[in-house]
Design a protein that fits this description.
The protein is α/β, with parallel strands linked by helices and 535 residues long. The protein folds into 2 domains: 314 residues, no CATH class; 123 residues, no CATH class. The strands form 3 sheets. Strands 5-4-7-9-8 form a 5-stranded mixed sheet. A two-stranded antiparallel ribbon has the order 1-6. The longest helix has 29 residues.
């Protein structure tokens, strides 16, 4: 009965973590409209009324981001696009704590300390809308847990090896940056268990399919310097992705990197409520680690290959024994080192190092060597209460965002499907309730809900399986520089113009060439007077 009640509580808390995704139609996630638009391209590619097949081509290679696009394609066989995305991320919100618990168990820690991951579901990366990266997170924890078991067992079974191979391949197809972290993690786990080259080759064999997938995408894209005809589309204001010779790495000062660490997990809300939750989380973590040395109320039940279990061929050397006993902590330190030492951006990839910080936080419970029993259950209860606060806070922010969006959906309904639309966002807001420039990619909702094309698109970026056909990408200003809009060069290529805020430059004179269709909550929709230029 006790175990049944515990499972029921876990289920309720997981559902609460997913509930904010249902608090409003438009989610306050910066990049999400772009990902939704391209998911619609793949889901309804052959629909002649949407014009996708005329504008885009779908790559044959298994590139990263299929980890988001493939589940969306499957879900949209039965559900509308927005509902499919909401269901997918609801499942993600529940899978993340479960996967962290699985990894902790594989490291010989009490899975109940995965309660620390519950308040971390709603974190900064989610509000940036990094959809494929987010989906890669639970896959990473499943993969490192499976690998820890693979390396620690005397004779790994075929089913465990197959699961590890599948998890590693799924991770490669979800996001290359997370897959690279998994590669470093795999090396660290292998070092902790090392028993010779033969051992390493045998136990690492399930990773070979994912390495082949990664090489098949990475080498032609970045190393072999493909011909211009084979490269993915190059858009205005973006540099060539053809080789590793021009990374354009940008580092920030080390002191700034460390000082901004809390903000990069908890700093998404304009009212500072995320920061308060973060301080409570850190306090509970410090208490849990400090109390780990107190006597256990009884022997901890075995949870698989624990840190004190000797390898089958005898006790390991002291250093390797120490590494094996602290595998989870080792991976947490490794993830934090990636945050502290890597650049904040390279060509085509922004917010690079900061994405690793959340992995360090999710792995932090590995430092708690004791079980979550006895008086320590109070700490778990406090974490559950903190998680419920975070969930409720997120739901309120999602609901509040709907008033900022206003009648934007009505403007979308007034646009014909399958056209070309340019978003000119001068007011990227809102300043409340979320700090990110959430309206920057809102024009991509047209592509997600009405088809057609938008001026700035993620199509053509190296990890994206969708690219423009030759000559089909319309000229556009950078998404951050709408003031660079030039009617003569860009205007004739578009049917509609979605303008937010007070336009500057030639965008302020759209009335000379276009008719105002409607105005809603800071948005103005213009339609070009003549038919779009032949393309």
């Amino acid at each position: 009965m006790k175990g049944r009640a515990e499972r029921a509580l876990v289920g309720l808390v997981l559902v609460a973590g997913a509930a904010p995704f249902w608090a409003g139609r438009f989610l306050p996630f910066l990049d999400m409209p772009q990902h939704l638009g391209l998911a619609n391209v793949l889901s309804r590619y052959s629909d002649p009324g949407l014009g996708f097949s005329r504008t885009y081509a779908v790559g044959s290679a298994l590139s990263p981001y299929w980890g988001y696009c493939a589940p969306m394609w499957l879900l949209t066989r039965a559900l509308p696009l927005e509902l499919a995305n909401r269901v997918l991320f609801s499942l993600w919100a529940m899978a993340l704590p479960l996967s962290v618990g699985f990894a902790l168990r594989a490291f010989g820690r009490d899975w109940r300390w995965a309660a620390f991951s519950l308040p971390l579901v709603w974190h900064e990366n989610l509000f940036f809308g990094f959809a494929p990266f987010l989906l890669s997170m639970p896959v990473y924890f499943a993969a490192v847990g499976l690998l820890a078991r693979q390396l620690g067992e005397e004779r790994p079974g075929a089913s465990g090896s197959a699961l590890l191979a599948a998890a590693a391949a799924a991770l490669e197809l979800a996001h290359a940056q997370t897959y690279l972290l998994f590669g470093l993690s795999a090396l660290a786990l292998l070092a902790a268990e090392w028993r010779g080259l033969s051992f390493g080759l045998r136990r690492g064999a399930p990773l070979a399919p994912s390495l082949a997938l990664f090489g098949a995408w990475f080498l032609p894209t970045f190393v072999w310097n493909p011909s211009p005809g084979a490269r993915l589309a190059h858009t205005a204001n973006y540099r060539d992705f053809g080789s590793l010779r021009h990374l354009g790495a940008v580092f920030e000062p080390g002191a700034e990197t460390l000082a901004r660490a809390p903000e990069r997990i908890w700093g998404m809300y304009a009212d500072g409520s995320g920061a308060y939750a973060g301080m409570a989380w850190l306090l509970l973590l410090a208490l849990s680690v400090a109390l780990a040395g107190w006597p256990e109320p009884g022997p901890l039940r075995a949870t698989g290959a624990g840190p004190d279990a000797p390898p089958p061929d005898g006790p390991p050397p002291p250093l390797r024994a120490a590494l094996r006993a602290h595998r989870g902590e080792l991976l947490a330190v490794l993830a934090f080192a990636c945050y502290a030492l890597l650049p904040v951006q390279v060509v085509g990839q922004w917010y690079l190092n900061a994405r690793y910080l959340v992995f360090a936080a999710l792995l932090a419970p590995a430092f708690i060597a004791s079980s979550a029993r006895g008086f320590r259950r109070l700490l778990v209860a406090a974490l559950v209460l903190l998680a419920l606060f975070c969930d409720g806070n997120a739901a309120r922010k999602v609901a509040a965002f709907q008033s900022q969006v206003g009648g934007f959906a009505g403007l979308l309904e007034r646009m014909e499907p399958g056209k070309k639309v340019l978003g000119l966002v001068f007011d990227r807001g809102p300043a409340w309730p979320v700090r990110q420039p959430l309206f920057l990619h809102f024009a991509a909702y047209y592509q997600a809900l009405r088809g057609g094309d938008v001026g700035f698109s993620f199509a053509g970026l190296p990890a994206v399986p969708v690219r423009y056909r030759p000559g089909e990408q319309a000229p556009h200003p950078g998404e951050w520089a709408p003031q660079d809009f030039r009617w003569q060069e860009m205007g004739p290529a578009y049917d509609y113009f979605l303008v937010r805020g007070a336009p500057r430059g030639e965008a302020a004179r759209l009335g000379e060439h276009a008719d105002l269709v409607g105005e809603e909550a800071g948005w103005k929709l213009w339609r070009r007077r003549e038919p779009a230029a032949a393309r």
